[in-house]
């Protein structure tokens, strides 16, 4: 495995992830803001935002097969090309359903390139560096997602300037990704592993359920904040500039804590850490509605809460590698991607329904309850997890 690791390739991959993260971070609040200003209802607005994640979810089951057949590099270039074309078409239309279709298309492209980059990194990293590399992967995705909403500040230069800027960055990224060199031997190996593990989804769930849940939680949290908070903020009288800063503050908070939390997880155990940060996050989300009148208080709260729970996706992925033998990791990565997509798809639409029926405060209470429910699940599932792990053949156990 050490022979297939390349730092140059790693830098290119995390740059790709950073730019595509910024694409999601910009498009969700930008189009949501446009539709809110055009009088589109909150639930329909949320449904449109969810289209991106529907695309991710539908494409996810195809990813393992496509990587095995075409290789990592072609998969990444295909995903980037699909995303770039869809982004470039957005300024040409103003219809909500066309925008929803383009969001859906962006989701397909994102699914392809995120799966390929994520698996390429996790499958080639040295065992003693895997947690570190996954944390760095999550860091750069979060960096991009945090930069994305700041593009709303370019609206003063013209309505289409943020989108054209993102289009130009994606074109540059395609050129950079073309420098990647395929590791055919490793792709063939992953293809064999994927075929061997494709019938073991039930095993992955039995052993890794707690580790796979954070992907859905993070997806719900990220998409609902990016897709619904612009609506909540505008109705609360918060300016567009502050809305972009607050969404970014959540992500920037997660970046500050991403690597320290990864190191802490190595020391105290990732399951214990996940339970702790989700419990604290549940309390923080419950308090957010009471801080709504004060933008600076929201900024501090979003930064701290983001620092706590903004790393649960990467912590969950690292925890999966602790629990499962390596041959199950392609299947586990696919499941995590589907979970993230489901959470992201449910987030904006559920948030829209809550805003329409009970007001924006209800969204934060639901997020708080969801984080608390995960903590309870982790407590209850502890013994079942150990029991299932012990039923694996000795040579397949991997203690984390």
UniProtKB/TrEMBL annotation:
InterPro entries xref list: MFS, MFS_dom, MFS_trans_sf, MFS_YcaD-like
A GO term, aspect molecular function: transmembrane transporter activity
Transmembrane segment boundaries: 12-35, 47-68, 75-98, 104-126, 138-155, 161-180, 201-221, 241-261, 273-292, 298-320, 332-350, 362-381
Keyword Cell membrane among record annotations: yes
Tree of life domain: Bacteria
Membrane topology: Multi-pass membrane protein
Subcellular location: Cell membrane
Main location: membrane
Gene3D superfamilies, A to Z: MFS general substrate transporter like domains
GO CC, one annotated term: plasma membrane
Stretches assigned to coiled coil: none
Keywords on record: Cell membrane, Membrane, Transmembrane, Transmembrane helix, Transport
Name of the featured protein: Predicted arabinose efflux permease, MFS family
Residues annotated as domain Major facilitator superfamily (MFS) profile: 9-386
Keyword Cell membrane in annotation: yes
